[in-house]
Every structure is written in structure tokens, then in C-alpha cells.
Amino acid sequence: MKELHEHFQRQRKYIFYLLALYALGWGFTPYPQAFLSLFLGTAISFYNLWTMVRKVERFGQAVAEGKKVRSLGMISRMAAAALAVFVAMEWPQHFSIGLVVLGLMTSYIVIIIDFLLQKMRQGEER
Prior knowledge:
The chain is about 85% helix and about 0% strand. α2 (about 30-65) packs parallel to α4 and α3 packs antiparallel against α4. The chain has one domain (about 1-125). The protein is mainly α. It is a multi-pass membrane protein. Keywords: Cell membrane, Membrane, Transmembrane, Transmembrane helix.
């Protein structure tokens, strides 16, 4: 589980940098709708990543103790994504649905980039 926490710490840092960049873009560029949409999607994406890490920890702990595990919470993560899309549809003057969906995929993109960076670093150490 220590490795899971290390991965999550790095990914959280990257996502927070992106959220800060989106906030600056929202405040200081002529494209506030785009950056606000990306911010909303990325915030929900981060929430989904955080809940997944928590549930994987509980899953691992339950398996180690020989207990049954209910699920990893796919429905709750889908509901959070649906909420983001609902917000974008409710206020189209403030949000773009396409960019909200792109923001929802941000955590997966960050995970892939983090994986590739770690593989490159391991290759340099050898």
C-alpha cells in the first residue's frame, strides 16, 4: 500500500498544479468558460481518483484479513461524473460539456503520464 500512496501523492500534486493553472486561466484569459469547464471536470476527476484510492486500500485490507468486500464504488464515481455533466448542461453559459468531459478524463491522463515518467526514471537508474 505504500507504493499506492506514493503514486497518489505524485498524481495529486500534478492535478493540483493543473487546477491552479485552470484557475489562473479562468481569471486572466479571455476563455473563462473553457478553463472553468476544465476545472469542474478535473475537480470531479480528482474526487473520483481519491475515492478509488481509499476503496482500494479498504479492499486490500479486507482481503488481507479474509473478509468480504462489497465493491470499489463504480456507481458513486459514475454519479459524480453525471453530476458534473448535469451542472454543465444546467448552466451552458458558464460550462462547455465537451471540456467538462475532457476534464473528467484528466486523472487517467495524469496516471498514464506519471507511469511513463516513472518508467523513464527507472531506466535512467539502471
